[in-house]
Specification:
Blueprint (H helix, E strand, L loop, with lengths): L5 H25 L10 E7 L10 E4 L2 E12 L4 E8 L10 E6 L6 E6 L15 E3 L4 H20 L4
Parallel strand pairs: 2-6, 5-7
Antiparallel strand pairs: 1-4, 2-3, 3-4, 5-6
């Protein structure tokens, strides 16, 4: 068997590394498999901003997947985003529960976290969450931090009268 030259070995190692990184990105983009079928029932949540959320995004309760985002649309009358959730059969959600849009890390996608309430009455199929929290934009958050720091610096630089 002929030995590979040093350059050929480096090329093969580089190609294998690129293939491994590409597969990690593809698997990260696809995320964990979700049940994208229509089994289960539909719930609705209304948000002022659903930035980063998309159809197929996960819905988690207590860290466990209980469904996914089926569709999203803009309600032109209220200018709110209507998010249609497909909740798997067997999961019941109290009417006073909260549906928050959460970031899956700085570069990750978004998902909906359901924090169950304590009511004994459950959301019926076709029902809507009364309590929601919008997606947090990291850019808006950083902008507020910078503006606060600039305001504080300006206050410290102004001479006392």
């Amino acid at each position: 068997m002929a030995r590979l030259s040093r350059d050929a070995r480096h090329c093969l190692i580089g190609a294998a590394t690129c293939a491994a990184l590409a597969s990690v990105f593809v698997l990260g983009y696809l995320g964990e498999p979700t049940n994208r079928g229509t089994d289960g029932y539909r719930l609705f949540a209304y948000y002022e901003s659903a930035a980063g959320l998309s159809a197929g995004s996960r819905v988690l309760m207590a860290g466990l997947p209980i469904g996914n985002v089926h569709a999203m649309r803009l309600d032109k009358a209220t200018n709110e985003v209507v998010v249609e959730l497909n909740i798997h059969d067997g999961f019941e959600i109290p009417v006073d529960s909260e549906a928050s849009i959460i970031s899956d890390g700085l570069a990750g996608g978004k998902y909906i976290r359901v924090v169950p309430g304590g009511d004994y009455e459950m959301l019926p199929p076709g029902g809507a969450f009364d309590f929601t929290r919008n997606s947090i934009s990291f850019f808006d958050l950083f902008e507020k931090i910078i503006l606060m720091a600039e305001a504080r610096r300006t206050e410290q630089q102004e001479p006392a009268e």
